[in-house]
Design a protein that fits this description.
By secondary structure, the protein is α+β, with helices and mostly antiparallel strands. Helices cover 36% and strands 17% of the residues. The strands form two sheets. The chain has a three-stranded antiparallel β-sheet with strand order 3-4-5, with helices on one face. The protein has a two-stranded parallel ribbon with strand order 1-2. Helix 2 links the parallel strand 1 and strand 2. The radius of gyration is 18 Å and the shape is globular. The protein starts with a helix and ends with a helix. The relative contact order is 0.11.
Length: 165
């Protein structure tokens, strides 16, 4: 699906979930954990609100907890995310980041990050992340198991593809 269509669908579905939970008589009785992968495609920090007229993810980040809508975001480009959304995050799972803008952004936006943690983020192995926040007493380097079954996507093995005998 192209980015524009995906953005509209994700935003509309997110709004429908929030509206559904807000209409419930007993608030937060049916909690939903909304996890958005590659969220830099949908939660840009710019002021372009598109189809809804406002940033639904900022609203969910600020108000969603009282209705039982939790937001989990995953991005390789944190500097492109809405500052409002990131400021509402209390726990982080950060994989390898090498872009200086993203590293600087994390160091300014996240109170738990020290320069030592920032330095570790540039050389983490695939499947390894630094986990920190209010749910974790000390930042912890964590190795995650691979998906089982595996995904259909993977990084191209350039040395295997380009160099043939």
């Amino acid at each position: 699906m192209d980015d524009e269509s995906a953005e509209v669908i994700v935003k509309v579905l997110s709004k429908l979930m929030l509206d559904y939970l807000r209409m419930q008589d007993r608030k937060a009785q049916k909690p939903i954990n909304l996890i958005i992968e590659e969220d830099h495609r949908f939660m840009m920090g710019q002021m372009v609100y598109g189809v809804l007229g406002y940033n639904i993810f900022e609203r969910i980040a600020k108000e969603g907890r009282k209705y039982g809508l939790l937001l989990g975001i995953s991005s390789r480009r944190p500097s492109e995310l809405s500052k409002t959304v990131v400021s509402q995050c209390s726990n982080f799972i950060v994989h390898r980041i090498q872009n200086p803008d993203d590293l600087m952004y994390l160091s300014h936006m996240v109170p738990y990050v020290t320069q030592g943690i920032i330095n570790q983020l540039t050389y983490l192995q695939t499947g390894t992340a630094l986990v920190f926040g209010t749910a974790i007493n000390l930042p912890a380097l964590t190795k995650f198991e691979g998906a089982n079954p595996g995904t259909d996507s993977s990084s191209a093995d350039i040395s295997e593809i380009w160099y043939h005998e």
